[in-house]
Amino acid sequence: MVEPEPVSKPHFIERVPGLLVVLALAGAAVPLGRLVPVIGGPVFGIVLGVLAGVLVPALRGSWSRPGYEFASKTLLQLSIVVLGTGLSLQQVVKVGGESLPVMLGTLTVALGGAWLFGRLLGVRGDTQTLIGVGTAICGASAIAAATAAIGAKKSSVAYALATIFTFNVVAVLAFPPLGHLLGLDAQAFGLWAGTAINDTSSVVAAGYTYSQEAGDQALVVKLTRSLMLIPIVIGLVILKSRREARVAGRVSGAEPVAAGKLPWRRMVPLFLIGFIVAAGLRSAGVVPDAWQESLSLVGTFLITSALVAIGLSMRPSELRKAGWRPLALGALLWMSVALSSLGLQLLTGTL
Q1: What pLDDT, in 10s, does the model give residues 220-230?
Q2: What is the DSSP string of 196-264?
Q3: Which of 93-102, 129-138, 166-175, 268-277 has the highest average model confidence (pLDDT)?
Q4: What is this structure's pTM?
Q5: Residue 9 half-sphere exposure, CB side, CA atoms within 13 Å?
Q6: What's the rounded Cα separation, in Å, for the pair 222 and 199?
Q7: Among positive and negative, which fits the CA dihedral 311, 314, 315, 318?
Q8: Which residues contact 257 (CB under 8 A, 6 or more apart)?
Q9: Up-side HSE of residue 183: CA atoms within 13 Å toward CB?
């Protein structure tokens, strides 16, 4: 039997045309995101990518595919590493034990709810996972990390981002007046916003609309919540590897690989190691505060570029297949997390 020739990776020169398209659109999406932070650059990025692909079909030619693939995978992973520089472990420690039960509780509600409501609504696979992780942790950044870990379908990424964006806007508009109606003090509102709103920009918008103190509290809670990316991504990689091993075992007749026997490189992706190292450097003071604004912009540009590439590679028909169900899943999860955050504050005596 003749062995098939290995498929060679595209040369960097082959990636340049597609990358130039991606970077040009990202260069438009990031400023738009800064003008309208409730929407953000990543959401503008995927929208511009889809629109450009629909309006200019030539952008989806074979000449552009290597660049799009590079941006949607490598730049996506690199963005997670850069975003790690925004985490200070000292800030996390300052949050204290009082907020941890609420954060862990809402995380459990979001992930458990994604499993339960996803089954009831018939939203399964990548879409179910990404909406659950995005709601549980930190919106677009968590969706990006999960996508890099499991190689999610492009349509699932778009559904998850659209869902997260919708309820971010609702939260920014609804949370401050609801907080005043409920008589929440600054600390209670900050904990509520930090655990029940997804993207950092939306947490900041809602928190500082309420008060300076509430905004400070919400931001620190949100940073602490972002650390949950580490165990969640490792868990997703292990589950994916075990599933692939079972499929391979059925095809070949070999014994499936046990989770404990998986190589560490498959259980802990390199981009996640980079994320942890970046957070450690920030905490050790190696990454000075003066760099934060620039690094945040670089991270946003990279993640926006990756989502532009995903948008350019998509077909609108892929988005029409699932209909209203992903949005319904996102609504149920968002309401469950918002209510459970307040309920857990009552139970723990922080409200």
Answers
A1: 888 778 778 88
A2: H--SHHHHHHHHHHH-HHHHHHHHHHHHHHHTTHHHHHHHHHHHHHHHHHHHHHHHH-PPPPPGGGS-H
A3: 129-138
A4: 0.74
A5: 4
A6: 9
A7: negative
A8: 241, 242, 245, 249
A9: 1
